[in-house]
Amino acid sequence: MSTEATSQVKFWRKPLFREMVIIAVAVLVITLPFINKAFEWDDGEVIKFAEVFKDNPTQLHLENFGYLGRFNEQFRTSHPPGVSYYLALYMKLGFGVNEALYHMAFIIFPLIAAISMYLLARRFTRHALVAALLLVVTPGFIVTSHSLRSDMPGVAFWLLATALFVHGCDRDNWKLLIGSGVAMIAGVMIAYQALSLVPLLFFYALVHRRLRPRVLAPLAMPLAVFGVYVLLTSQKYGGWPVLSYEVGIVWGLQDFELKLRALLVFIGGAAIFPLAVIPLFL
């Protein structure tokens, strides 16, 4: 057997590769059975914006759109346009609106999230595979893996940016650091919450005494892109990007009660899972 063939066999037998395959299979197990699931909730809004972006990428609003019982001549979403831009690429290629196709296209995001969690966990624990699989089987991860909303893509690029930054910072590897900056840019254009990575990762570099230009550069990248986005939005619409759907909406006592009830149910449901896996940590 040639040296090249021998090295390939060794690569396929490496624990790192085997464990990543296990994680990928776990993600497919929780996503493929729901590939034909009907669109729900905000999925329709994401698709409508994608239809707009397909022909006009700079139009960040929907015309004559109803939301929460209110008619809007010019409706602007509180989410960045990243996810709808992604769908717009498929539409541009000639693919029509289809549940199975779009859900297949979105499987890439839970895969990125799970693999990134695994690579990040390898830095802090000897049980990285367990950590990644625990993420995959959490209720929140499973549910958001079946939608077109920004939740799972946002988590995916959040974890990817963090994993790349931590390993790049520890190894002083500029390629990993730049990759982290690119992932943070993608995260910010999918969910504004990704901006919170900037102080978080800055603190990591500070604690490990790694504050140098090549480490700080990726942290400046998402801030610069977000600044340009805010500037363009301000020029086009005369103000900041929309950060909440609830601006201008008056909530009554009954609305508050419904929100509180939903929040308590969510917290209660989410609390069951960590209690159930306590035996794994004993």
Task: For the structure shown, list the relevant keywords.
282 residues; mainly alpha; globular; two-stranded antiparallel sheet
Radius of gyration: 21 Å
Give the distance, in angstroms, between the N- and C-terminal Cα atoms.
46 Å
Helix content: 55-70%
Oligomer: single chain
**Shape type:** globular
Tell me the total number of β-strands.
Answer: 2
Structural class: mainly alpha
Q: What summary fits the major beta sheet?
A: 2 strands, antiparallel
Q: In order across it, which strands form the biggest sheet?
A: 1-2
Low-pLDDT parts are 5-9
> Helix tally?
13
Strand proportion, as a percent range, falls in under 5%
Average predicted confidence as pLDDT = 85
Order of helices and strands: HHHEEHHHHHHHHHH
Question: What does it look like?
Answer:
This protein has 13 helices and two strands. The chain has helices at about 5-15, 15-30, 45-55, 80-90, 100-105, 110-125, 130-135, 140-145, 150-170, 175-190, 195-205, 215-235, 255-275, and strands spanning about 60-65, 70-75. Helices cover about 65% and strands about 5% of the residues. It is globular and about 55 Å long. Helix 9 packs parallel to helix 11 (about 195-205). Strand 1 (about 60-65) and strand 2 (about 70-75) form a beta hairpin. Residues about 5-10 have low confidence and may be disordered. By secondary structure, the chain is mainly alpha-helical. Strands 1-2 form a two-stranded antiparallel sheet.
